[in-house]
Design brief:
Elements: H1 3-26, E1 37-42, H2 49-62, E2 71-73, H3 75-83, H4 86-92, H5 97-111, H6 119-134, E3 137-140, H7 144-147, E4 154-160, H8 163-174, H9 178-200, E5 212-215, H10 221-235
Parallel strand pairs: 1-3, 1-4, 2-3, 4-5
Length: 251
């Protein structure tokens, strides 16, 4: 396991431990409502790592009393969580048998009967749905907006940009030439589109399956973070401290 993955998994454990502790302390007194679940879908060549890190940092500093830690999960971390037999079992502790049955029923309705080749899709979708029901989480990719579309605590974001902007981003990030970057971008966009069409029968480019579509063409990461921060706080005000100085976050 590399350092980055190891660090991300440690944050995932901290997130789950925080939610476990909250439920042990609060649940006997009153039901614990799930915090916000933010899903982010993006075109190839748009990197969400910095955006997610900054949002998690801000939200953890201004989260309301009696709410748990925030964390961000991307494809790699979700797959690692699935392979880690401890985390999924601990996630299940937060769900009643009724909720677990509901999760399975929803996935069966969404994905149908699953031959072995679809087991990973089913497991990934199940993990995403369970994380969403815990709340205070940002989930990137894997059709998370569709999987969680029936939940009231969700807010769905799509990040787009012109092809030349995304290609240049890939050139810089991967250290490749213009032609190779374009090929990678086109290949990834097609793969993501086919994934959503095949397993969820939706068009990834349909703006109506998102709550906000943001064109990154003339926006840097800090501007996007400020926009998303304000939208999410306005959407879910009860989960954040109303007088925190981070509301006027200075970069």
């Amino acid at each position: 396991m590399n350092v980055k993955t190891d660090g991300s998994l440690a944050k995932a454990r901290k997130y789950i431990e925080s939610h476990s502790k909250l439920r042990e302390e609060i649940q006997p007194k009153r039901p614990v409502k799930p915090g916000p679940c933010i899903t982010i879908s993006r075109q190839s060549g748009i990197d969400t790592e910095v955006i997610c890190e900054k949002l998690v940092d801000i939200f953890n500093r201004i989260r309301a009393e009696d709410t748990a830690e925030w964390a961000a999960f991307d494809k790699n971390l979700i797959e690692k969580v699935i392979k880690d037999h401890d985390l999924p079992e601990r996630i299940n502790k937060f769900l009643s048998e009724e909720k677990i049955s509901t999760v399975n029923a929803m996935l069966n309705e969404l994905l149908g009967v699953h031959p072995p080749i679809l087991k990973l899709v089913h497991k990934t979708s199940g993990t995403i749905l369970k994380l969403a029901q815990m709340g205070n989480v940002i989930i990137v990719g894997r059709g998370a907006n569709i999987i969680t579309s029936h939940l009231k605590n969700t807010f769905h974001i799509r990040l787009i940009a012109p092809e030349d902007v995304r290609r240049k981003n890939l050139q810089t990030k991967l250290g490749v030439g213009k032609k190779e970057a374009k090929e990678i971008m086109e290949r990834e966009d097609i793969a993501r589109k086919e994934y959503i069409e095949t397993y969820f029968r939706k068009d990834i480019d349909d703006p109506l399956i998102y709550d906000a579509v943001i064109n990154m063409n003339k926006l840097d990461d800090e501007m996007v973070v400020r926009m998303l921060k304000d939208m999410i706080i306005d959407k879910f005000p009860k989960f954040f401290e109303p007088h925190s100085e981070v509301y006027q976050f200075n970069w």
